[in-house]
Amino acid sequence: MTTIPYPTAAELCKRICLENKPKWFTFNGMRCLGCATFSGEVEKRCFNNAPGCTGCSQVNQRFQETQSPTPH
């Protein structure tokens, strides 16, 4: 996995949290809600836990989608 630059990971995390907020009762929504609630600060969220700031699974997936070449 490629290391995700911190500003990119933070922005992806923010977007994913906003998307999941109205769907807090889903698995991913609960993960975001719990991460945001218990971390308290963006710098302590799950996407920072792995060495090299590789991201939580949701951030990793979104990052990979943005890096994939789009079919013509």
Salient structural properties:
54% helix, 72 residues, mainly alpha
How would you characterize this protein structure?
The protein is mostly helical and 72 residues long. It has one domain (6-64). The chain is 54% helix and 0% strand. The chain has helices at residues 6-20, 27-39, 57-67. Helix 1 packs across helix 2. The longest helix has 15 residues, at 6-20.
Write the layout of secondary structure elements.
Blueprint: H1 6-20, H2 27-39, H3 57-67
Helix pairs in contact: 1-2, 1-3
Tell me the count of domains.
1
- Spans where pLDDT lies below 50 across 5 or more residues: none
Helix and strand sequence: HHH
Structural class category: mainly alpha
N-C termini distance? 25 Å
Helix fraction? 40-55%
Radius of gyration: 12 Å
Overall pLDDT score: 81
The geometry reads as: globular
Number of strands: 0
Strand content: under 5%
Number of helices: 3
Q: Please give the largest β-sheet.
A: none
